[in-house]
Amino acid sequence: MSVGIRATSGWPWWASWQGIFRFEAFVSAAIGLAAGLAWATTGGHFWPAWVWFGLGVPLALQGAVRWGLRAPKGERALFVHAAISFALAAIQLTIWLLAGLGYFWPVWSILGLGLVLSVHFWIVRHRPNAREQALANRVDVLTRTRRGALDIQAAELQRVERDLHDGAQARLVSVAMSLGLAETLLSSDPDLLAELLSEARSTTLAALDDLRTVMQGIQPPVLADRGLEGAVRALALDLAIPVTVTGGLAGRAPAPVESAAYFTVAECLANTVKHSNAASAWVDLRHQAGLLSITVGDGGQGGASLDGGTGLRGVIRRLQPFDGKLAISSPAGGPTTVTMEVPCASSSPRT
Amino acid sequence: MRVVIAEDLALLRDGLSRLLRAHDFDVVAEVGDPEALAAVLAGTPVDVAIMDVRMPPTFTNEGLVAAIEARARRPGMPVVVLSQYVQQLYARELMRSGAEGIGYLLKDRVADVRTFVDAVRQVAAGGTVLDPKVVAVLMSQHARREPMGRLTAREREVLGLMAEGRSNAAIAAKLFVTGKAIDKHINSIFMKLDLPLAHDDNRRVLAVLRYLQGGSPPGEGNRQWPLPGT
């Protein structure tokens, strides 16, 4: 799941880095040559060797790092490490040579460098390979999204149970009571009887309204009737601002994907109506190369974000089990576009 | 008045039939699926057909499709489409075949027996009856659009009640004003919507149709939605 605002930055940082390296090498060579010429005219102890050494150290280190960075991605750290180790060993050997041989002290530091490098090598070799790593990551994602999907499902069931219990069920109990009482009043109090019957009728209608609301929240009937495109068109007609629907879907996506996508569009359009101050909105739907992409946009005041409310976070959790992605672009001042993509198959249309 | 009822749930079909018979309707047939309905309509003279949106075989919107087909075969055929939920989209699809003789109502409305029976009679006579829920959404959308923007708030209210299929007397009672005041509002609506002088009932239908069309978002045009089964 990637969420964020796209930023473009095509600045090739390495190009200037290479330029600096070349320039540095050129300057070093010039200084080295000057030192050599100075020694040739004055003679004596061959001191320019130390100048050359001093100029060579930074070049050698940079060269080593650059060589190491050219290694393939998974092994880059090891190669950089090895390159620096060899460069350091070479530097010490040079110092030992220039200092006039004697006790071979670099052996200790070279042994130390070698030891650390071997440990690094051993760790890299025993690390799971890229494919295993990718699979492990996938398992992590699946575990997380499965837990999310089950959480959503449990929360939904709980909500449906509560809505039915407090709404339709309570109203039907009240209807049954009214009717029971009405039965006892059949002959004795026709006025109260009429009142009770009328009350029973209006309570029944309220129960029906409750049931409709609950069903709309579970699965909007128009989605089953007409599929995603039809349901989005129907939704667009019901909103207070004009919504243009473009594109189209020839077939039907799997039902759970349609449902998640529908609720995402509904949430985006509800946000547009509530917060954006836009005069109109648009929805674009298409399914190409196994990818369902839907964009919802408006010309409102922008500033929408995932932190604004829990609504969009909720729909992202609904999209995650299908490896869906949602991106928001909503700079202050607008416009706002929300793009979602869900990889899925599309069945051929019913005929 | 001869009625045919198409509803797959026996409980509701029987209830509807009993209710209509009690109000002196002649229920000529009660069927449970669109095929049987088409067969009845082909062979029996019927004044109005009442059908459920959701019927076999796919239990989606067969009733709506059947209503549109029936009107394609016999233009102006009065139909009352009942549903557990109402959609602007479906109301528009029904109205594409003309607004005369169309009823589109929530099943709940049957509970208000007198209004429901009136609505069926009105549709049979060529009127238009839309569910208050459809009308309410239109009301919220139309306030700032032309030519609806020309109407006063009261006139829009009257037009909304006309779309629900109420008579002038019923509108007057609902708004607690005299029938004369309602006549005045309605004439003003006809004028502002530039409706041609014609028979009053026909103008009512035209006004309602204009009202519905005002809801088309710009650019959408009259895109024909491909109905399943057509």
Helix content of chain B: 40-55%
Low-confidence stretches of chain B: 215-230
Query: Mean pLDDT of chain B, rounded to whole units?
Result: 83
DSSP E strands of chain A, number: 5
Largest sheet of chain B: 6 strands, parallel
Give the strand order, joined by hyphens, for the main sheet of chain B: 2-1-3-4-5-6
How would you spell out the order of helices and strands of chain A?
HHHHHHHEHEEHEE
Portion in strands of chain A: 5-15%
General shape of chain A = elongated
Q: What's the shape of chain B?
A: globular
Largest interface: A-B, 28 and 25 residues
Fraction of residues of chain A in helices?
A: 55-70%
Radius of gyration of chain B: 17 Å
Whole-number radius of gyration of chain A? 36 Å
Average per-residue pLDDT of chain A, rounded, comes to: 86
Summarize the structure.
The complex is a heterodimer of chains A (351) and B (230). Helix content of chain A is 65%, strand content 10%.
Layout of strands and helices, then pairs:
The complex is a heterodimer of chains A (351) and B (230).
Chain A: H1 13-42, H2 48-69, H3 76-98, H4 106-126, H5 130-184, H6 190-218, H7 221-238, E1 243-247, H8 255-276, E2 281-288, E3 291-298, H9 311-319, E4 325-329, E5 336-343
Parallel strand pairs in A: 1-2
Antiparallel strand pairs in A: 2-3, 3-5, 4-5
Helix pairs in contact in A: 1-2, 2-3, 3-4, 5-6, 7-8, 8-9
Chain B: E1 2-6, H1 10-22, E2 26-31, H2 34-43, E3 48-52, H3 62-73, E4 79-83, H4 88-95, E5 102-106, H5 113-124, E6 128-130, H6 132-142, H7 153-163, H8 168-175, H9 179-192, H10 200-213
Parallel strand pairs in B: 1-2, 1-3, 3-4, 4-5, 5-6
Helix pairs in contact in B: 2-3, 6-7, 7-9, 7-10, 8-9
Architecture overview:
The complex is a heterodimer of chains A (351) and B (230). Chain A has helices spanning 13-42, 48-69, 76-98, 106-126, 130-184, 190-218, 221-238, 255-276, 311-319, and strands at 243-247, 281-288, 291-298, 325-329, 336-343. Chain A is an alpha+beta fold and 351 residues long. Chain A is elongated and about 135 Å long. Chain B has 230 residues and is of the alpha/beta class. In chain B, 49% of the residues lie in helices and 13% in strands. Chain B has ten helices and six strands; from the N terminus they run E-H-E-H-E-H-E-H-E-H-E-H-H-H-H-H. Chain B has helices at residues 10-22, 34-43, 62-73, 88-95, 113-124, 132-142, 153-163, 168-175, 179-192, 200-213, and strands at residues 2-6, 26-31, 48-52, 79-83, 102-106, 128-130. In chain B, strands 2-1-3-4-5-6 form a six-stranded parallel sheet, sandwiched between helices. The two termini of chain B are 31 Å apart. At the A-B interface, helix 6, helix 7 and strand 1 of A face helix 4 and helix 6 of B.
